[in-house]
Every structure is written in structure tokens, then in C-alpha cells.
Design brief:
The protein has 181 residues and is α+β, with helices and mostly antiparallel strands. The protein is built from 6 helices and 7 strands, in the order E-E-H-H-H-E-E-E-H-E-E-H-H. It has one domain: HIT family, subunit A.
Length: 181
């Protein structure tokens, strides 16, 4: 929703258009965080997602050891996470088959995003631990963030707002259709 807002001090219109993203408050405030936190698989969204319907969980593809899921709070459109099914926090805890399939799924995610949305590049990474920026540190996840020339325009840099042009469920459907079998 946009609109000219009144300046809080004077009540006069300040001429600025506002883009509201109220869904982000859940993430910022931690309101959706389970009572026991994410430490146990019973409260971990990455442990729960594979058991839910794809439309609800946003799971794009499933492998033997890992799965790909859309990030509920994406940095950019098409931001995917590759997660092991096993609830492990640290990359060094993955066994060889999990490590290999995580790499294979990361490559597949890049190919799918390029095919569907013509990404110009990617940021790939894992935040290991809360101090490193992991929002859910208890369950390892590889970020696959598509990038386009100009995607760091005035909106996120000055306006501290990210505009996402597509519903997550629509993005999930597009990616799932072209994910390799």
C-alpha cells in the first residue's frame, strides 16, 4: 500500500510515498519464533517444511539428503535455501553424501533461477552461528540469492525497502516446473 503520509510532528503531508511491508514485522520481532526456539527439530521451520504441502512450505525440490525451499523473507526475488533434512548447525557436521547433494542442489538452483528469471549473478553463502548473521543458526542452510544489475538501487540503499514483484507461491511453482528430475 502506498500513500502520501502526514508528518508525525506537524500533521502536514511530507510528499513522500511509502511502501509498507508489514509482513516483515513478524521476522523482525520474532513473533513467529516457536516458544522453545529453533534449537530442537520440533520448532525448526527447516525440519517442518518437508512434511508440509509444497504450496504451504514453499519447498521447490526434494532430494535424498537435502531440499530446496524459497526463503520466506527473501533478500531478492527467487532467493532459495538449500537445507539438509538432518537438523545440524555446522557445515562440518554434514556427511559426504549430504555435502555432495548440497553442492548439486546449489548448482541446480542457480540453473533454475537463470532459466526462469535470467539472473545476472548470485550470492552464495552460509551464515554459521548467530554472530555471523544466521537467523536460524540451529539448522544449516545454503543461501542462493539471485542478483541483477541495478538490484541495489535507491530502494534498498536509501529507502531500506526491497520491492518483490511476485508472490512466493508463484515463484515456487515456476521453479518447481523446471527443476531437474
Amino acid at each position: 500500500m502506498t500513500g502520501v503520509e502526514r508528518h508525525a510532528d506537524s500533521g502536514l503531508a511530507d510528499g513522500l510515498e511509502r511502501l509498507w511491508t508489514p509482513h516483515r514485522m513478524t521476522y523482525i520481532s520474532g513473533a513467529d519464533r516457536p516458544e522453545g526456539g529453533y534449537e530442537k527439530p520440533t520448532g525448526c521451520p527447516f525440519c517442518l517444511a518437508p512434511g508440509r504441502p509444497a504450496e504451504e512450505s514453499l519447498v521447490v525440490a526434494r532430494g535424498e539428503h537435502v531440499f530446496a525451499v524459497l526463503n520466506l523473507y527473501p533478500y531478492n526475488p527467487g532467493h532459495l535455501l538449500v537445507c539438509p533434512y538432518r537438523h545440524v548447525a555446522d557445515y562440518t557436521e554434514l556427511d559426504a553424501p549430504e555435502t555432495a547433494e548440497l553442492a548439486t542442489f546449489t548448482k541446480a538452483a542457480m540453473r533454475v533461477v537463470r532459466q526462469v528469471s535470467s539472473a545476472h549473478g548470485f550470492n552464495l553463502g552460509m551464515n554459521q552461528g548467530g554472530v555471523a548473521g544466521a537467523g536460524i543458526a540451529a539448522h544449516l542452510h545454503q543461501h542462493v540469492v539471485p542478483r541483477w544489475g541495478g538490484d541495489a538501487n535507491f530502494m534498498p540503499v536509501i529507502g531500506r525497502t526491497k520491492v518483490l514483484p511476485q508472490l512466493l507461491t508463484d515463484t515456487r511453482d515456476l521453479f518447481a516446473k523446471v527443476w531437474p528430475a
